[in-house]
Design brief:
Layout lengths: L6 E5 L14 H12 L5 E5 L6 H6 L6 E5 L5 H15 L4 E5 L1 H5 L1 H8 L3 E5 L2 H13 L5 E5 L7
Parallel strand pairs: 1-2, 1-3, 3-4, 4-5, 5-6
Helix pairs in contact: 1-6
Length: 154
């Protein structure tokens, strides 16, 4: 596995709700664990919840080769801003994928509007690993991918 490939998983802020999700996003933590266990050691989580200003959030984003962004409907507008910022200011060639409830419910719309390279529908554990491997090989996945539930969580 590429030890030089940098992967950042982002949990965006939720400004549309009064009590922002200020706890760690366990889904992103699981995805990071899968990547690290499979050799993608330079994987990190950028937790942006609890920050009340979008400019402050954007200043915290650092350069990576791959970004995975969790997306709820309440964070969708912020996700769009984050993607535009990454593509314009941080790394125009970065590979970006989005997963979570919003893109799972509206995959075509999310793909069309977001500017992301990939929309993950369903479970992300297999998707994140396959995505990282494909980017590493130089054959990144594009569009919308669908993954079924993991039947045996053990």
């Amino acid at each position: 596995m590429s030890e030089n490939m940098k992967i950042t998983l982002i949990n965006p802020p939720y400004f549309e709700i009064e009590d922002d999700h200020v706890e760690q996003n366990l889904g992103i933590a699981y995805l990071a664990a899968v990547l690290i266990e499979n050799g993608f050691k330079d994987t990190s989580i950028l937790e942006l919840t609890g920050i009340s200003d979008m400019e402050d959030c954007l200043r915290k984003i650092y350069s990576s080769d791959i970004y995975g962004i969790s997306c709820y409907t309440t964070s969708y507008k912020n996700v769009l801003q984050i993607i535009r910022y990454i593509k314009k200011e941080i790394n125009p060639s970065a590979y970006i994928f989005i997963g979570g409830p919003h893109p799972s419910a509206l995959p075509e719309e999310t793909y069309r509007e977001s500017g992301a390279d990939l929309i993950v529908v369903g479970e992300g554990e297999r998707a994140v690993l396959e995505t990282a491997k494909q980017v590493e090989k130089g054959t990144p996945l594009k569009g919308i991918v669908r993954y079924k539930e993991i039947e045996n969580l053990d």
